[in-house]
């Protein structure tokens, strides 16, 4: 898989981004070539990709990939599939990789509170608070900017922190099947922090055969713990 993922990275950073930059001036031949390559990598049809003008939204991808099987793809973990009421809809109606773990999360918390801590309550527990994301103020003023941006991009804050403290280390842990925070998006953000060349060695990445919550995979959790322990040891030497 490592070689395949690098091939896809090269395509995304090369022919794909070049095609997007050309906009409506892209030639029919190049459009066909890029759409065909995208189809081979994603499993979506060439026709669908071309109708989306090469710009496939994540929600659409999750709905479209297995549409002929009346299934949708998970967001936190794309190995999970779900069944929607409306198979012809625009986007998934829920995230299978969320609902299949939220129940055990809730049960485990209640068991811990009641059995270990002796705490009981009639309050409802929500693994993800309802309405919080919709009400969140995402505006953020990055370093060096005179005004707040509408998107909370904090990469430049981290970049400044690393410049101010050259001993600060960054370790990015990624689940390969995570569509909530896809690893390539993380790579892009970190690789555009405009770090001084002397600081680039302070950044490292790790990848696991898991979704967003790496710890749900026992084997990946064991490896992640070992990786993080080594990172702490190396960073404090």
From TrEMBL:
Classification via InterPro entries: AB_hydrolase_fold (IPR029058)
Protein known as: Serine carboxypeptidase
């Amino acid at each position: 898989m490592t070689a395949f993922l690098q091939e896809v990275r090269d395509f995304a950073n090369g022919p794909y981004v070049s095609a997007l930059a050309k906009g409506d001036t892209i030639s029919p031949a190049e459009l066909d070539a890029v759409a065909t390559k995208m189809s081979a990598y994603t499993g979506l049809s060439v026709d669908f990709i071309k109708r989306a003008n090469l710009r496939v939204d994540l929600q659409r991808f999750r709905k479209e990939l297995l549409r002929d099987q009346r299934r949708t793809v998970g967001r936190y973990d794309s190995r999970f599939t779900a069944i929607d009421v409306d198979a012809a809809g625009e986007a998934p109606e829920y995230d299978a990789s969320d609902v299949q773990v939220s129940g055990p999360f809730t049960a485990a918390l209640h068991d811990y509170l009641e059995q270990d801590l002796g705490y009981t309550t009639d309050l409802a527990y929500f693994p993800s608070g309802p309405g919080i994301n919709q009400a969140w103020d995402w505006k953020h003023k990055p370093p060096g900017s005179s005004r707040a941006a509408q998107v909370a991009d904090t990469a430049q804050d981290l970049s400044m922190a690393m410049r101010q403290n050259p001993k600060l280390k960054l370790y990015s842990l990624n689940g390969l099947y995570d569509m909530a925070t896809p690893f390539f998006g993380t790579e892009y953000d970190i690789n555009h922090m405009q770090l001084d060349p002397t600081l680039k060695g302070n950044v490292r990445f790790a990848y696991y055969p898991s979704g967003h919550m790496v710890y749900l995979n026992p084997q990946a959790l064991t490896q992640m713990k070992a990786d993080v322990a080594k990172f702490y040891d190396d960073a404090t030497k």
